[in-house]
Amino acid sequence: MPVGKSKKATRSVTLTGKATAILERRRLTSTVPWIFPNEKETGPAINTTIDHQHARVRDALHLSEEFVLHSLRHTMLTRLAKATKGNKFLLKQVAGHASVTTLERYIHPDDAEMDEGIKRMERAHHVAASGHRVGTRRKPVKAKSLQTAVIKQAGA
Length: 156
Prior knowledge:
The chain is mostly helical. The chain is built from 7 helices and no strands. The longest helix has 15 residues. The chain is elongated, with a radius of gyration of 23 Å.
């Protein structure tokens, strides 16, 4: 990315093999010098042109209007987070974000991933049934208070 909204946005981006193959096919079959030309093929496509094309396809397929191109960025970063076991520094670099805080808005773990994360933590740290590491002197959290907190959060 030679230009971006910030200094961090200027970066190299590694593409998947599939994405590389698609772009290479477009390059080889293009009659103009741009992989994504504008509609008159007189220059490169601009963001609004791509957004309009996406909207036409989305509407033709009767997809939700909530499905915008930016959704794909969230999907990619969520999948990359899972594949890299949440390596936030790598994810921050790929996304071109200056801070991890901004990155956190893009990653959406599902319930199964959260459950698996807790299980991995338990195995890695030998957590006792009380919820604390074996050998710690902390008083265990009462199950009733934890359940109450979860119920209050769910009802809020």
